[in-house]
User: Which sequence fits this backbone?
């Protein structure tokens, strides 16, 4: 999607008909727009989302006042006032014109809710054609839930990195990467299976019918459990968010800060130690499960060896059948070749010699094999003993380290509690309470996980029984085949979703680190967890790492980096999506951002502006005069294709008008003593 | 012997299906994708998927 032009008519403070070109060209992909506070930067951002989805963001007040106030006030009662936003864009090689409009009738002093109409046209061979189901089409091009990654307010962008948003962000990424259809299929296929099972129960006979009913009961139990788990995970995310907030306050506190940082370090070490000990115990258990029987084989193998040695010495080891067979030939005095075996003859001597040689060879070979195996068992037994002793020592050392770290944490806790500040006392109490509730929640989730696993194991067991249950009717056989195929497809989709999600998270994490490293000068690095939690860390000299308390500025940089990483990944993966249509730019989106530099200091403003042009194929950036001039403009200048000013016309009689100097020319910025309050979007062409 | 599935690729997962299964998987994704942005279409999607299964698996 590439935006080429926007046209507005009486939309909020943009009075009358106004338009602005947006198309990037000659490799210049940035549109830079300057505006004073309240001049209409946020409204301009909302013009896009209103046009596409009919939505205005939460930071827009008086949402129902969609028509320019002055136009509304000047209109007569009963008059229809036209209001519209039209956005022209290119997508997949086609030109589109999206228009949301309304004819708002003035029937009261105050504006009421507006019923708008959305229309979409596409241009084919120079002919404009109406697109049917336009709302659906626009959501196909840019799904609504993804719009927050591409149309956003820089000052509010840190909402993306709070814990409450993680689950939503994870879902958004799946939408962006076209995995949503896989998830939807996983919701719908069990319902299809239920429909098929109705046929099966009808025609499958008593035994099969009962099994199917039992399977469905277990499936229902697993589904309920999963819903409960999801609800608890949401609750857990909220508790963790709250805890992080408390910890950040403790870290930033002048007295508690140093102690909290020590506690962060100790907790990080403890978590690693606990994990290492768990791994040691798991390895030890595996060893016992696979080689443990050796412990009981010691005496038995020695006894076997002694008995066999004695028999060997006495020549009494049992001979194999072959020797008995030869003896029988001698007893019967007839060889298998037909010759008579008479004592003293060459034939008899030959067979007797063969009897002696064959028997002894076999016995000797068996003896050697037995001796070798018994010896090997003894060696393995010794190895097992040594390994178990090593595990015991390592686990004991680990446990002792755990105790020591826990002791250190208790000590630190006491030190924090002993600080005289009442505020710290409250924060510490809150921290304790949240940690307890988080532990309880984790236990409940673990319990639910076990119940779900049990129900799923039971489904698996019953399905095996069902597979072999006899059904007389061909309709039932057919229903069973269909159910089994649906189950197999469902399993395959679950695996595909898992493979893709993990791969995408890894790639997104890598890109996030790259973008973040380009912007920041600090020795921090971000990390995206499997649950799409965004954290910021700093490596320590001892090889450990500590979470960094994020300032508002760092949260903004982290969020901007995340958006840039999402944008890059979307472009890369779009052509490979499952079941996706072959398109040239289906994963390409513009970024329209208000207050791009939010509350960043000057250094960060410069670094962010350097990175902006690479964030997306098209950037529309709105800035205030104080943010946008100087370093920012210098950095962005080579990438800017269109520049504009939101000229704020104000009826204010007290303040003086202001100008803005761009490219050596002066343009109006705030024009006071105007007859009315409105905004003019002025293109800077110099 | 258990099979470690952690290193399985998408292609291997799909290859593990029967011919009917592979065909059904493709059809399921086509149906889901075409309805992704329609609201309230769950019932008709399930019905279409049901018909697809009946058409593919005899």
Assistant:
């Amino acid at each position: 999607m590439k935006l080429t032009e926007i046209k507005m008519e009486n939309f909020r403070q943009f009075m009358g008909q106004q338009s602005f070109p947006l198309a990037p060209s000659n490799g210049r992909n940035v549109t830079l727009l300057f505006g004073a506070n309240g001049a209409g930067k946020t409204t301009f951002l909302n013009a896009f989302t209103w046009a596409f989805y009919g939505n205005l963001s939460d930071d827009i007040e008086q949402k129902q006042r969609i028509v320019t106030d002055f136009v509304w006030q000047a209109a007569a009662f009963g008059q229809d006032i036209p209001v519209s936003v039209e956005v022209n864009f290119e997508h997949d090689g086609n030109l589109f014109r999206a228009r949301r409009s309304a004819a708002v009738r003035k029937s009261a002093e105050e504006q009421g809710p507006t019923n708008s109409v959305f229309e979409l046209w596409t241009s084919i061979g120079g002919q404009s054609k109406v697109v049917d189901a336009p709302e659906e089409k626009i959501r196909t091009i840019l799904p609504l839930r993804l719009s927050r990654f591409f149309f956003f307010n820089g000052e509010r962008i840190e909402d993306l990195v709070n814990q409450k948003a993680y689950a939503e962000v994870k879902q958004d990424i799946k939408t962006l990467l076209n995995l949503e259809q896989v998830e939807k299929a996983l919701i719908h296929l069990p319902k299809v299976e239920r429909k098929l099972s109705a046929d099966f129960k009808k025609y499958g006979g008593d035994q099969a019918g009962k099994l199917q009913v039992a399977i469905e009961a277990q499936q229902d139990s697993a589904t309920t459990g999963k819903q409960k788990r999801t609800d608890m995970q949401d609750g857990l995310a909220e508790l963790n968010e709250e805890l992080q907030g408390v910890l950040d306050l403790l870290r930033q506190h002048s007295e508690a800060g140093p102690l909290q940082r020590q506690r962060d370090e100790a907790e990080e070490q403890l978590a690693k130690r606990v994990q290492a000990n768990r791994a040691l115990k798991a390895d030890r258990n595996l060893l016992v499960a696979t080689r443990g029987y050796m412990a009981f084989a010691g005496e038995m193998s020695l006894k076997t060896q002694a008995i066999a040695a004695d028999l060997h010495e006495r020549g009494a080891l049992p001979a194999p059948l072959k020797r008995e067979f030869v003896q029988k030939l001698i007893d019967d005095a007839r060889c298998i070749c037909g010759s008579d075996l008479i004592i003293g003859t060459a034939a008899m001597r030959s067979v007797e010699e063969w009897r002696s040689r064959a028997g002894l060879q076999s016995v000797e070979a068996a003896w050697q094999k037995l001796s070798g195996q018994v010896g090997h068992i003894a060696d393995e037994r010794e190895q097992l003993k040594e390994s178990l002793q090593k595990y015991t020592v390592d686990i004991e050392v680990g446990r002792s380290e755990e105790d020591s770290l826990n002791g250190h944490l208790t000590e630190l806790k006491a030190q924090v509690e002993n600080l005289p500040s009442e505020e710290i006392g409250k924060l510490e109490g809150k921290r304790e309470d949240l940690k307890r509730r988080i532990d309880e929640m984790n236990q409940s989730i673990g319990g639910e996980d076990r119940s779900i696993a049990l129900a799923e194991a039971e489904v698996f067991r019953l399905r095996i029984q069902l597979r072999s249950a006899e059904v007389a009717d061909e309709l039932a056989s057919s229903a069973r085949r269909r159910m089994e195929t649906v189950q197999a497809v469902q399993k395959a989709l679950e695996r595909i979703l898992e493979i893709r999600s993990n791969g995408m998270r890894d790639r997104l994490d890598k890109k996030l680190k790259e973008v973040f490293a380009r912007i920041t000068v600090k020795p921090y690095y971000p990390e995206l967890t499997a649950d799409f939690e965004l954290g910021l860390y700093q490596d320590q000299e001892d090889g450990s790492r500590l979470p960094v308390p994020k300032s508002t500025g760092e949260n903004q940089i982290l969020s901007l980096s995340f958006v840039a990483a999402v944008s890059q990944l979307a472009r890369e993966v779009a052509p490979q999506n499952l079941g996706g249509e072959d398109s040239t730019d289906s994963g390409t989106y513009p970024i329209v951002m208000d207050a791009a530099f939010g509350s960043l200091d000057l250094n960060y403003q410069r670094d962010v502006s350097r990175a902006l042009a690479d964030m997306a194929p098209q950037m529309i950036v709105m800035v205030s005069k104080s943010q946008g001039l100087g370093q920012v403009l210098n950095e962005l200048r080579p990438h800017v294709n269109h520049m504009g000013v939101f000229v704020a016309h104000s009826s204010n009689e007290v303040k003086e008008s202001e100008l803005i100097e761009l490219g050596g020319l002066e343009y109006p910025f705030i024009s006071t003593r105007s007859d009315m309050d409105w905004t003019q979007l002025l293109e800077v062409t110099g | 012997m258990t099979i470690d599935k952690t290193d399985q690729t998408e292609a291997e997962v799909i290859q593990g299906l029967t011919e009917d299964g592979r065909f059904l998987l493709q059809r399921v994704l086509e149906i889901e994708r075409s309805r992704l942005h329609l609201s309230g279409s769950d019932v008709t999607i399930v019905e279409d998927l049901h018909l697809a299964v009946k058409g593919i698996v005899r």
